[in-house]
Amino acid sequence: MATQIFVNLPVKALEPSVTFFTQLGYSFNPEYTDENATCMVISDTIYVMLLVEPFFQTFTKKSVADAKQTAEVIVSLSLESRAAVDDIIQKALGAGATTPMPAQDMGFMYQHGFQDPDGHLWEFFYMQPNA
């Protein structure tokens, strides 16, 4: 069995988060969805659990970071082309995201990111295969 990753992110409200990420083209696994959480499917091995803050708090004794004020993590995902990077950024901006940094072109790698409505940082990149 391949290793899977489940990134757990706290959100203020589930429905607006689901609406936002649906506009980016992501789907959700209904088997892992209730009023407290949902499982966003990135790929066959990558999932993001969006957990309402009170439920997220049950998994840790630490306080939940305010992602609009503090960077707690940058979720970085590869895409198949520069155009795909630009496309998802445009979808995110259209759905209410902001871009905290301009796109970066390093020749062998192109990257750009956004801050989702809850403040979480997402970065998408394309790296040339022979690089």
Automatic annotation (TrEMBL):
Record-annotated Glyoxalase/Bleomycin resistance-like N-terminal domain positions: 5-43
Gene3D superfamilies hit by this protein: 2,3-Dihydroxybiphenyl 1,2-Dioxygenase, domain 1 (3.10.180.10)
Pfam family, one: Ble-like_N
Stretches of the chain forming a coiled coil according to its record: none
Top-level taxonomic group: Bacteria
Keywords: Dioxygenase, Oxidoreductase
InterPro entries found in the cross-reference section: Glyas_Bleomycin-R_OHBP_Dase (IPR029068), Glyoxy/Ble-like_N (IPR053863)
GO molecular function terms listed in the Swiss-Prot or TrEMBL record: dioxygenase activity
Hydrolase found in the keyword field: no
Keyword Oxidoreductase: yes
PANTHER family, A to Z: BLR2408 PROTEIN (PTHR36503:SF2), BLR2520 PROTEIN (PTHR36503)
Record-given protein name: Glyoxalase/bleomycin resistance/extradiol dioxygenase family protein
Record organism: Siphonobacter curvatus
